[in-house]
Amino acid sequence: MPKAFKQIAPPVPNSHHAKNAIIMVAIYELVKGLVALGVAAIIFVGHDKLQWIAWVVSQALHRIMGMALHHQIEALNHYAWVANQNWQKAFWIVVGYALLRFVETYGLYRDKIWAYWYSVLGYGVFLPLEVYELFSHRFNWLNVLILLVNIVIVVVVYRNMHAKGLLGKKMTQA
Q1: For 41-52, what is each residue's pLDDT tens digit?
Q2: How far is CA 22 from CA 17, 31, 50, 69, in A?
Q3: Residue 99: which residues within 8 A CB-CB, separation 6 or more?
Q4: pTM (predicted TM-score)
C-alpha cells in the first residue's frame, strides 16, 4: 500500500460506523439505479419525443443554473439525439447500467467481498478520467463534486477492505 494512501485512509476498526459508511455507499448506488430506471422508462414511453424532453429539461436547467451546467446540458441534448436514433439500444444500455447499480447495492448491503472489489475498482478506474475532465474543460463545480464524491467512495470502500483484511492478506471467505 502506498505510504501517501495510508495517510489519507488509515485502516478503521470493523465498527458500526464503518458498516454505516458502506450502507451509505449502497444507498447512493441504489439511488443511481433508480434514476437510471426512471431514464429508461422515459426512453421507453417517450422515445418519439426524447429530443423535446431533453430540450424542456435543458431550458429548465438553464433557467435554474445559468451557464453552470452548460457542458452537461449540451451532452444531454446530444445523448437525446443519439438515443432518438436507436431508442431500443439506448433503453437496454440504461437498463443494464441500472442492473449493475442494483447488483453493487446488493453486494455492499450484504457485505460481499466481490462487491468491495467491484466498487473500489469501478470507481477507482474513473478517477483519472474525472481529473482529466476537470482540467480539460472550463471549470465546473459539478465535475468537482462528482470527483470528490467518487474519491470519498473509494476511500470508504478501501478502508473497509483494509479493515476486513482483504488487502495484502490471504482471503479467508468467499
Answers
A1: 999 998 888 888
A2: 9, 14, 36, 30
A3: 33
A4: 0.78
